[in-house]
Fold each of these.
Amino acid sequence: MPLRRFILLLVFLGPAAAADEFSARATPLLSKYCYECHGAEKQKGGIETHHLTSTDAAFRHHRFLEAIAEQVESGDMPPDDEDVLPTDAERQELVSGIRSILKKLETGDFPRNAGRTTVR
């Protein structure tokens, strides 16, 4: 009986967990290293990261993703004069999470949510 419950739990929760991989992989790193200079109050270089809180949000605000990935991967961001810098593993995790979203955009494998539906 416990195995059956576990399988049912996987069936129902699996897609939800997979659907928000960006928030699990990238959002904590963006919050830790990027929000201070590229957040709601300040957007240095015109780059905003505070909107990138979930996979769905990353799809909606995808125009910043490639620039963020390139800057993080090259080591240009965050700048060396910051007090706390990401490890190489954290950089790779953030870039990987961003590139995953970009790949889904290229292949058309993204949610087709046009916004709120009005019931009439």
Note: The mean pLDDT is 82.
Amino acid sequence: MTVNSCSILQSPLKLDHYQINESDGPNFLRIISVWIQTKESKGGRGRSAAAMALDANSRTIKWTATKFLRNYGWDLLLGSIAAFHAITVPYTKVEESFNVQAMHDILYHRHNINKYDHLEFPGVVPRTFIGAFIVATLASPLVLLMQLFHISKIYSLLTVRMVLGFFVLASLRHFRLQVRIKFGNVVEAFFAIFIAVQFHLLFYSTRPLPNILAFALVNLSYGYWLKGNATATLRCLIIATLVFRCDTLLLLGPIGLELLLSKSISLWEAIKCGLSTTLLAIGCTVCFDSILWQRTLWPEFEVFWFNSVQNRSSEWGTHPFHWYFTSALPRAMLVAYPLCIIGVLLDRRIRRYIVPVFLFVLLYSKLPHKELRFIFGSIPIFNLSASLAASRVYNNRKKHIWTLFNLIMLGSFLLSLGFSALTFIASYNNYPGGYALKALHQADNSMKEKLVHIDTFTAINGVSRFCEKEYPWRYNKEEGIVKEEYQSRNFTYLLNEHSVIDGYRCLLSVSGFSGIRFKLKLPVIFLLKEPKVYVHANIKDRDIFLSKWPGCH
């Protein structure tokens, strides 16, 4: 080892025969220990030696911490934001219902398939259990521990969401590290900052949507794409297409064509890779899902047939062709959206990557039913283009004209943060069903058996099996009950979208987000809320009304 220790130790003792390299940092303490022993053997003051040992220890800790933050600092930032979203908004919506209920059933019913939720509420189209099974299996040790201590199942929901978030953020890290290798540290930093200030990507990163399960594989494919590993790129996209989201085919096609045109892979290699991965992926999903669905099926093929061939997805609403470019992407990317366009003009290296992704969004725009989550896979590449533009502005910030651009960019970051905060508040108030059931559980802690009916609106806006409690609570989600029929049913409580129901008295209401209003005075932007879910009690159960209830507004 080598060191210029005198300047570090500030001691008259000469240690010129040592030299400490960065990689020898942990051995620094051993050198100090040798020096202390030498000092003491010469009659030196022990107190001074001890002080210097403590100083050496402090330097070692700082060195280790710096190295850790350099390697994992961005992951800690993004992970903290994603965890904050999951903890503060633990409830889920109808889009997530299949995977949420599947994870619950795998964790709590295990091999007892007859009790699984999907057999009673199969949904419009079947989905694969593979993603839910992987996440639930990894979360199962902690969930089992929670069961032993009778901890509320809502914490099990948080656990599976954290596991899913880990997968998504790990895939983003894989892509980000390739960004650093190919484009440099500054571009990597801006890439992470853009993700941090964008609300939607991290908010949805822990939500068990089929799109998010596919999104993790898409991020992996992007990392391999930058790395130049064409076969791994294709394999990730093929698995994402055949198992999790059939519409990833619209991304697989343009990227596969780019790999062929750029001669990153030969046609024969692409065919071999495609066939082997296709057979493996279809074989796994057909075998596994046929057992759980109790019939032979390939889930994503049925989804493809329903959405693309029959075009039934338009029954859930339509948007104009330009909606992704004029509404969805600007809201999702914020300041990165205009910078993305500038990045394409400033840096030719990004063009080979952004053209296939742009074609993906363009092709998706032809489908009438549109949602932001459908094109999540495009955002990382668009963010990369924006990061290249931002790094160019930052690196030239000391030049006169670029100084102005840099100030505008910094101001845009602040505006993006404000918009993300506003969007978070709106989303927080978008799960009234979950908050209503939680309020009911907290208000009634008696041991008398009670039956709660949860209507469709409440169920799709925050209620899942993870929200349910054990005895004396029982739950019913029977659909199609008209208002007049409730009076003849023996429900203790109703969670319903109607404020007045014959035979029941309203105990409390939970408000939800209903819109945004702009004003000419502070605050300029005002979030509107209105009652969404009402908790009713059967008037025959008089004991319920002995307690104080907030009442309905």
Note: Confidence is low (pLDDT under 50) at residues 1-20, 22-26.
Amino acid sequence: MNIKKRGFSLIELIVALAITGILLCAITSMFAYVGKQFSYCLKNNLYKYYADEAMKFIEMQIYREAKSIDVFDDKLILYKNNNKKDIIEAKDDKLIIKYGNIYFMSNDYNIITECIKEFSVHKSNNVVFSKIIMKDGSVKERCLHLKR
């Protein structure tokens, strides 16, 4: 009864550990790449959502609440009933709306959206053109026809 028991040699163990290490390294780098891409796409979608919501807010202010509109130096001035006046403008990297009346503008404001690079608005006849450029470079433009 001569039974030979053969175990793993040192070289076989080193080769198996090397293959396992290479596979783990490849899988880890793949997960890191996918996570980075997911984060990038999430940030881009967030910027696009911010720009869409800001444009919807501006449109709502123009169509529902404004009696008349004026544009001056990339500021959208909304005249409302009861001598109220709102101003939509860019301040630092935020798009804000200031509240006041035709005689006095207070320092109170609300933030419409953040992370903007540029906000421009101009009026031509009965059309208001507005454009928001976000920090990531995405651009949202809209033209709104004013009621007479």
Note: The beta strands are 68-72, 75-79, 84-91, 94-101, 105-114, 116-124, 127-134, 139-145.
Amino acid sequence: MILGVFLHATIAYKAYPQPVWPHDPDYQSIGYDYLYFFIHSFRMESFYLIAGFFARLLWLRIGTDKFIIHRIKRVLIPFVACVLILVPITITPFIYYREFSSTQINSWSLFISSMRTSFTSWNGMAHLWFLYYLMMMYTVMMLFLNFRNNQKVIEIKAFIDRWFVSTIKNPRSIWIIIMINFGILLTFETLLVDAYTGLFPQWNRLLYYGLFFGYGWLLHKQVDYLDLYKTRVKLNLTVGFVLSLMVFYLSTNGQYTLPDILLKLLISAQTWTLVIGFLGLFLLAFSNENKPLRFISDSSYWLYLIHMPIVAWMQILLIGSSVPVEFRFLLINTVTIAIALVTYRYLVRYTFIGRVLHGKRNKPYMSPSKVTV
């Protein structure tokens, strides 16, 4: 989730401007284009893989009925509340930038009129689209679970389980899932799967992210093999990083390139090596209980929900400012994360909002003997 802050903070400083987003004319660097490309190639894919893993864990722990209630509370309610409250706040800086970045339009009355029009019409889900697709995956998951005792389904599941174990034991078998990913990626016009905030679901996006959700589900079934991912961290991350440099160069240099079909094959390999590489890295680094990291993990949901308007407003306010251009990206990330962590600690963690987002958290108990007068 925190990677989403870095990702969106890069956009104002990319050499190739992105429609609608604020763009700082004082400073652009192709390095930010690469950073955006690199993060975008595995971030949401990793999220859905983890979501699939914990979906099965939770379902086995509490059962179908309680799972549905739990997901309504943790996903559906925050989604609806944020669409009604947060989306209007989120789109405000973008409307402001659109109206005031033009030399022909510099009128507050026009800005207010544009705001009114935007708030009374459907503007999509902004950065909340991931919850929309996550709820669809839960729905598909429930439908599949209804047939889990069917004999044919049992046979198919047994075959998939055997294949999945073979892909974990033999790293070369990952090419099977890379080719499945490649086949889905061919249905998209863009090289990477970009964000789609529209109301009507797109089947290929559901299929694409569902592949990672399903992988996470299967991974929980074979949880005893998780340690194998730790042994291939260097290999996977090295291959993924090298592929990302190759694909980025070939897709942006304008001189030496490859057909899109080959680039998409390389991107599929890049995505999966990075996803499983970072999975192994985090299993290695964060296997033990760590209170600060647990706090950051708990806050990440809130951080992602509120970060977008903060990032966009800061990008706009820093345009033409006296802040050295080299520090603007760092400043945006620092301020955004700081605001999110402070508001989470004092306004969310131990309140009704926190209970909805991640469940009840008890305040640390301080014994009377430790209190200084």
Note: DSSP finds 15 helices and no strands in the chain.
